[in-house]
Specification:
By secondary structure, this protein is mainly beta. Helix content is 9%, strand content 35%. The chain is built from 2 helices and 7 strands; from the N terminus they run E-H-E-E-E-E-E-E-H. It starts with a strand and ends in a 50-residue tail after the last helix.
Length: 175
């Protein structure tokens, strides 16, 4: 996943096609909802402007391991992700941009673009916030409690707090 400036200078039409299987270590997903990535295939293209800028257009497919939200078991989750980033081999002058906050250009070190961080970011973005393999009837419950879901039917009529019921009897009028 590393490309040097010389790779782009030698490429036909200033583009490098991308098509390979990516291996990522579990350490790269520390402090994320993704525990591991079992398999990942990357396709896309890297466009070079002929001077210093490279724009990546990448597509990822694979299987990630995430934690079941209820049982904490490992679950396999198929994912598809897209990413697009802009890299520069030269320092970037933010004053040249129309809106410096809109343009996020990654300045690369030692004339080498490493696409690993871009891949990790795109994959983590696709991780589900909440996922479970359990059927609704298998959710845990106890004597005085039950686990509910946002998909459960809720009472459409809000219940009135009895502590405030007496306030309805009072007449609040300005004299």
């Amino acid at each position: 996943m590393k490309y040097r400036r010389s790779d782009f200078l030698a490429a036909d039409e200033s583009s490098i096609p991308v098509d390979f299987d990516l291996e990522l270590s579990d350490d790269q997903f520390a402090n994320t909802p993704v525990k591991a990535v079992e398999e990942c295939h990357v396709t896309g293209v890297l466009h070079f402007d002929g001077r210093s800028r490279v724009i990546s257009h990448l597509h990822y497919t694979g299987v990630m391991i995430v934690e079941d939200s209820i049982t904490s078991e490992d679950l396999e989750y198929d994912f598809e992700a897209e990413s697009e980033k802009e890299y520069s081999f030269d320092p970037v002058d933010k004053s040249d941009a129309a809106d410096p906050e809109d343009e996020e250009v990654i300045v690369v070190a030692r004339d080498t673009i490493d696409l690993t961080d871009e891949a990790v970011e795109a994959i983590v973005y696709e991780a589900p916030m909440s996922i479970t393999r359990l059927a609704r009837e298998d959710y845990p419950k106890g004597a005085d409690w039950v686990l509910i879901s946002d998909q459960d039917k809720q009472d459409s009529e809000p219940q009135e707090d009895p502590r405030w019921a007496k306030l309805k009897e009072l007449n609040f009028e300005d004299n």
